[in-house]
Amino acid sequence: MFDHWLGKFTIHAIPYDNPIIMSAAAFMALVTLLVLGTLTFYGKWTWLWKGWLTSLDHKKIGSMYVILAMVMLLRGFEDAAMMRAQQAMAAGAEPGYLPPHHFDQIFSAHGTIMIVFMAMPFLTGLINVEVLAEPPADFMMHNSEFLVAHFHNMLIPGALFGYLAGYMYWFPKAFGFRLNDRWEKIAFWNWLIGFLLAFMPLYMLGFMGMPRRMEHYGNPAWQPYLIVAAVGAVFIGFGILSLIVQLVVSVQGRQENRDLSGDPWNGRHRPGHSGRCHHSHLAG
Q1: Domains of the chain
Q2: What is the mean pLDDT of the chain?
Q3: Residue 149 pLDDT > 70
């Protein structure tokens, strides 16, 4: 009866012989136990349920969305780093370190996580859409790395950068202190350089005819571009790490960065004009 419910999923389907999958599963199990144990040890279950999960406070609801997006960003980046490392190595006789079926699973999981759970469907990019709408170009590039570059060009600078800007802008309103400016700039440059290095080469690979979802390839001319893309993934990794460090440093120095004005960016009036004088002028 249970076999009928579970279909093909049996105890024998668990890949005990794959150290990468089993190590990842063990790590996630340990993290889950650590989180559950921490909440239990400090008696925070009621605080979590009443103060956050069932809260009607718009700031807390928004903060939970941001937290979820950041967690999914880390999860999606992990998949991206594994794929780029595999493609940077798997040329010619070198098989790389991921078996084909695992690479396909990572590819699908990465796309689902980053689109649905990180950036949400983002269907803009008229220039790229126009290019793919031309039959000769569409025939050559539709299932190529050009399409991968196109998706990420829409999601990262088109959506994610805006989300991060909103996160930086509204953080003081939600928590009462500003984020560290120095680490904000470090994160910005790592994200910008990393994006350009990671995805611009994929446009060229699309023009060169490289299909997407390839865990191994026999064309050595593709490898230099994939190595550059892997270097870009490293920069993006530093960008994510910079955001984490920024948050930690900002929390530690929150007393120095307190905002008591309610308007940390001086957005209520023009520079050089006080709000009082402006309103007095209007009243007069």
Answers
A1: 55-266 (1.20.210.10)
A2: 79
A3: yes
The confidence score (pLDDT) of residue 269 equals: 56
**The model's pTM:** 0.60
What are the C-alpha distances in Å from 1 to residues 9, 10, 14, 236? 13, 12, 20, 48
Residue 164 CB burial class (10 angstroms; 0-12, 13-18, ≥19): buried
Count of beta carbons in the 10 Å neighbourhood of residue 1 = 5
d(CA 72, CA 69) in angstroms, rounded, equals 5
Name, of 13-27, 152-166, 200-214, the range with top average pLDDT: 200-214
Q: How many CB atoms lie within 10 A of CB 189?
A: 13
**Mean pLDDT on 81-104:** 85
Amino acid at 92: G
Q: What is the pLDDT of residues 195-217, one digit of tens each?
A: 999 999 998 888 888 888 788 88
205, with CB counted inside 10 A (0-12, 13-18, 19+), is buried
The secondary structure of 14-80, three-state, reads CCCCCHHHHHHHHHHHHHHHHHHHHHHHCCCHHHHHHHHHCCCCHHHHHHHHHHHHHHHHHHHHHHH
- How many Cβ atoms sit within 10 Å of the Cβ of residue 212? 17
Task: Look up residue 142 and give its two tokens.
Answer: 């539709």
For the chain, report the end-to-end CA distance as a whole number of angstroms. 83
Q: Which amino acid belongs to residue 105?
A: Q
Q: Residue 41 — very low, low, confident or very high, per pLDDT cuts 50/70/90?
A: very high
* Residue 180 DSSP label: P
Dmax over CA atoms of the chain, in Å, equals: 83
Indicate the residue type of 90.
A
Q: Which residues contact 218 (CB under 8 A, 6 or more apart)?
A: 91, 92
